[in-house]
Each structure stands twice: as structure tokens, then as C-alpha cells.
Amino acid sequence: AGSKLREVFDKINNLLSGKPVQTEGQAVSVTQHPQGLEFVCYKLAEKFVKHGEGEVSFHHDSAFPIAVVLSGIWELHPRVGDIFLAHLHKKCPYSVPFYPARKEGTSMEEYQRMLGYEVRDSKVEEQDHFLKRMSGMIRLYAAIIQLRWPYGNKQGAHPHGLSYGWRWLAQMLNLEPLADVTAMLLLDFLEVCGNALMKQYGIQFWKTMFFIQKSYIPRIEAVTSSGQMGCLSRLKNFMQKCLQAEEIPLPKGILTPSFWRT
């Protein structure tokens, strides 16, 4: 509910502003320790990324309430946003976007970590689980860049707005595609913020969509084996529907004005 989200936002904002906040029966304040504020910014940013790779990866709609709170906090406390990006880029290099190359002397285990895989006791997580986590983080990022906290000061610019999404898309299309990963990330990103990018960039956006369909999808196909076609097929269907309709649908779960009256 909108009212619940406001409570969460106010509690985080009060904590970061140095006000005492009640939690588990006691009052805590970042002023209780010289590095209290820095610690809270770090842990809060880390927590938002964990929401992306956990909750959002299983419940796509949850990207929007989480993103709108972070967007508002970022606006008032830019340090949280900077640290959030650092955590996000480390956990999901594709959010830069960047495909790390394996350097000489780097062990396979270390390289897999650089690519975003979880490695525990020399065991690498399964591909499905890895893709799900990356998907959740990209969806959260795509939600953040288009949302503003509705009760904030609308005078300033969004601290990390749609221009960053436009840049992400352009840089993504300049990279050589990876099997599985590239098709999934493009689909996730366009499903979540394609509608907002369409409204903002108009004809330039549609030129990019045609480029993806005509030139980039064949390049993804060239590196995709027959057993990895799932993500690519979904991306092709999505592109075809959007280009035929000349419209990108609003994402499922977007917060409407009526949500804030709940």
C-alpha cells in the first residue's frame, strides 16, 4: 500500500537525517558513532541491491515499490545512490554494462566471480539461478531510472534518470553479445523502461528498436546454441509485437496515482 511505503521511506529518511528511529524496542541514531552515517549508507545500499537479486528476481512487480523508495532516498542522500551503484556494478557488471575479460593469471573461479556468478566452496551456481539474479538487478535498475518519489521536491533533476538508461542501451548494443545473458538483459530492460524511453526519445528510440531487430538480434543468434534459445525467442516476440503495434506497453506493476491513495 502507498501509506506503508511512505512509512518505510520516512523511517529510512529520518535515520539518514540523524533523527532517532525506533527499532526493536530501542531508539537508534547515526550520530551515536562517528562513522554511523557512513555505515548505514553502505548497508542500506547493499540491502537495496539484495532486494534486486532476491525479491525482484522472483516477483518482477516488486521492482517498482523498491525503486521508488530508493529514488527518493537517492535524491535526498546522494551518497546512498553512489554506493548503491558501486554494489550493483560489482554484483552485476552488466548494469554498467561491461563484460569482464579474463586476464592472464586470473583463476577460473575468480573470473566467474567477476562475471557475477556466486562461487561457494569451488562450486559455481547454476546458470538458471545466475540469470534470475541478474534479471532482478537489471529490472530494479530499469525501474529506478524512470521513477521519482512523488512527495519530494520536483524542482531538481532526477539523480539518475532516463538519460542513464538511454546510455546503458546504447553501450549495450556496442558490445559483442553473450549467449543467454544479452537477450535476457535487453528484454528485462525494455519490458520495464521501454515505455518511458519511448515517450522521452520518440523517433530516436524507434530507430534503436529497428536496429535491435534487424542487426543486433542476428548477432545474438550467431552466438546462441539450440539449447539456449528461450530468452532469445522471448526477445524476438517482444520486439515483433512492439514494432507492429508501434507501442511499448506500460510495464506490469507500475505504480499508478491511485496506488498512493491506498
From TrEMBL:
Gene Ontology biological-process annotations: poly(A)+ mRNA export from nucleus; protein transport
GO terms of molecular function: inositol hexakisphosphate binding; phospholipid binding; translation initiation factor binding
GO cellular component: cytoplasm; nuclear pore cytoplasmic filaments
Localisation per UniProt entry: Cytoplasm; Nucleus, Nuclear pore complex
Any single Pfam family the record assigns to this protein: GLE1
Function: Required for the export of mRNAs containing poly(A) tails from the nucleus into the cytoplasm. May be involved in the terminal step of the mRNA transport through the nuclear pore complex (NPC).
Family listed: Belongs to the GLE1 family.
PANTHER family: GLE-1-RELATED (PTHR12960), MRNA EXPORT FACTOR GLE1 (PTHR12960:SF0)
Protein name: mRNA export factor GLE1
Organism: Toxostoma redivivum
Gene (UniProt): Gle1
